[in-house]
Amino acid sequence: MSWLPGITTPLAAWFFALLIPLVVFYFLKLRRSRMEIPSLALWRSVIQDQRVNSPFQKFKRNLLLLFQVACLCLLVLAAMQPFVRGDAEQATYLPILIDTSASMAATDAAGQSRLDAAKDEVRDIITNLLSDQRVTLITVSDTAQRMTEFTDNKRVLLDALDSIEVDDVPSRPEEGLQLAQALTRTFQINTVRFYSDGNLPTRPDGAGEPMAVVDFDLPFDLQFHKLDDPAANIGITAFNARKSGEDRWDVFVRVEGSEAAQTAATITLSANGEPVGSPESVVLEAGQSQRLVFRYDSVDAASLQIELTPDGTDSLAADNIAFLELPVSRPLSVFCPTELVAYRHSLEVLDDIELLPQGDEDPNRATYDLVISDSRDDRDREASTYLLTGVVPADLEGVLSVSDGLTSVIDWQRDSSLLQHVQFADLDITDVPSYAAGAEAAEIEQLGYEILAHGDTGPLILQRREGPELSFHLLFHTDRSTLPYRVGFPVLVSNLVGIAKEQANLSDVRGAPTGVLPTLSLDADQEYWIVGPTEKVVSQSSGPDGTLKGISARDVGTYQIQNSGDVVTRVGASLLNPTETSLHGVDRIHFRELTVDASIETASMDRPLWHWLAYAAFAVLLGEWWLFLRRPGGVPV
Question: Which one of 58, 439, 590, 630 is at 20 to 30 Å from 118 when CA atoms are compared?
């Protein structure tokens, strides 16, 4: 840092040459006419003026000249646009990233949010922009949005800054950094500023402490400006329900407090607007959490809402409410051909299942929750979960083939939801799936399949998710193995039923987080209107399969799905993010090759001086006006 002021336009110094004609003007004043008079006693002052007009005579002191010289010098200095150098490096093109995730709405003891604090610092930068500096504003939450182009128009920048609001979503800083990196292809960007509370996605370091890690290579110098810590906070971080009986739901709520101080609150559960049970009171030590369980008895669909009322200071309001949609209580609809005797025997002993078909007179259903079959044609039945045994998927026929022989399972994913508590050791299989010539496991994974179990010559069990549908493929037929005679077979079927119930939202239901609403199954090829909690209305069309997906949910609240003016369904979106509720801010961000430390002190910026010089020039003009226009006698010698 240099104590000498900087100059933005040094070429403006040529205007100092205007001093020459200004001084010459005083040497070349209009000469008086020559006259003969009897005496010069009364004309002594006239003689002195004549000497001033002589180039080689010392002219008397003249305040008018001094005022005009001072005014001209001040104006020329202002035109040179000097500035006081700050601590931060001067950048011609400066992207400013502003964190707008949910935690940026947290307030301090004075009631100021951290977003407003960031705006104050950015507003100071915009106000003091130099003539050769350009700024672009970028908001960063779970996505990045460029608010302005590179510009020095302070009005445009300030209007864009004032329009920035918080999104009730977690933060993903790499989105904004990638946008800034894209700008480097067009502009010479050496420095990027990031204003955030440091509440970023973390993972434990070697000592178990949270560490912010961003998978990104920095092509520029990142200045990470961390805002002050907010006041204490308590919020809801989990909200889900599990069916525990034919008409009973166990509702689970997790409440967490920030590390700032002890927190307390009252928790109230309501269904369709009516209270359920009695409110619960919680008191949490700093950084602690507590799990609450409510009971709700109903066989009908219901909209649950959990509301937290803080007893004292609470700096974030977005995590004080959460929503959950309970489906109609009904049995799981399962299609399983009568030929698959082993599967049907395992299914018949399970509760809350409607097993089809039951006889030749059973009508075909339009949809099922679970389809178990050994025929590829049954894959065309509409369901949310499938298990096909002894069938190679059509798109893998060129990669895999099945031959007669003997194989066994050599490895399987024990943490898979389908294979939990299932032992495949010493299992004999007479169908031998194997790779085609030149084929590899990578080709299967590229098609969206995950290998759950491997055999001697190839994969044995595959899993694939396509939107809301989940399918499992046993590449061997279970009747051509010893699996149906093992204890693990009914366990596998029970796991499959549990997965199907989750897929159909019949057993475990979780509150939808903000960001994007879950996929909705509605009428095909229809135009729907989505009305959010802020009354913002957007339209979106359902696909040919009747799914409506990708609905943006940037705010906590209830979203109405309307068709022709009628409300078709409602979906609530909740924050439900422990990181955002904790308000924990890191002091360091780890990138791929380097680490960036946070700067808590506000960096002093380059501050222009030209307006102060212009004000001084104006003051000199006022002084000249007062001395030489308002005083009729002029200035005495």
Answer: 590
